[in-house]
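I am still getting used to backbone structure tokens and would like to learn alongside you. To get us started, please write out a protein record for me. Once you have written the record down, we can walk along the chain together.
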Amino acid sequence: MFETGILLKQRYGADQVYDFSLGNPDLESPAEFNRALREEAAKTAPFRHGYMPNAGYPETRRAIAEMLTTESGLGFSQDQIIMTCGAAGAINTVLKSLLNPGDEVIIMPPYFVEYEFYIGNHEGKKVEARTTTEFLPDPERIAQAITPKTRVLLINTPNNPSGRVYSAETFRQLATVLEQKSREIGHPVYLLADEPYKKIIYDGHSYHSPFRFYANTIMANSFSKDLSLAGERIGFLAVSPRAEDVQLIIGAATFCNRVLGFINAPALMQHIIPHCLNASVDISAYRRRRDLLYAALTKTGYDVIKPEGTFYMFPKCPIPDDIEFVLALQEERILTTPGSAFHYPGYFRISYTVDDRIVEAALPGFEKVFRTFKQKNQ
């Protein structure tokens, strides 16, 4: 999709291609980040940009521990935090730490495409537990998927690609299943929550910390989305202070963070992040684009659940073949991602990390392609 976008922009001009394919945040980073960047970059001292403890600077980890304590009501300390190269670095580090060859990780379609590869990186086995038709976890399917080889349930809320936000009741249901099945199989099933979109939530919906609901919870997070820092590769890993073997997991993950080649998270970003933990991009721009797309697509006839968070929308295609439909959109110079990439055929993802003008200019093309296929099927 990325290379197709480049070719189309070369052929027609960048302003004539409507690229909704990548979740690459386009909003300017908040003022708190820009101010801290200038201040921290100007400082000089020996080892200012050198190696630090592999878990990260203690003062940065303390600041994140305080944030998580406020969110969860638990007593986090810096000893339960590891700074990582984004959420991807955190997830790989956790899986390397927890999995023996053949251990199972449950993931729920539709899911971020790279989860499958992260699991395979560490000789794990992917097990799918399909969500409900509303793209929410199905506790019965999850329970049926758990076996003595299950080690992790990997979740993502707010969700990429669906935009769904898990409620407190959803977390209670997940906790009930995981507690019961962990007792049955004789070892904990860890809940690994990937949460880089937790500040991008709309319409009065709330973020609920998974740490509040289940003791054996591990969080992977990044500042890529809420601070628009995707290219800076800064995130963190946090293990609940209530988790079984919490310090053993932290010790293993600190070591794995190094041997996987991450070594440590970027030093300058670690200096900056404590200044920005309460900051976020202005999500009103994302909300405005979401509302514009949702109103136009539903008026045309698309079947789509209104996203409660993230900057993604996941409409149903008017035909079963999502690849064919996405290629037809390309004929209108509209780039989207097929649902098959998220192991959920028949749908497609729109990433509205583009200027409002692009959204508005693309709407006639979305309508044209939809009506063309509907007429063919009549």
About this structure: The two ends are 31 Å apart (CA to CA). Residues 3 and 235 are 27 Å apart (CA to CA). The longest helix spans residues 356-376.
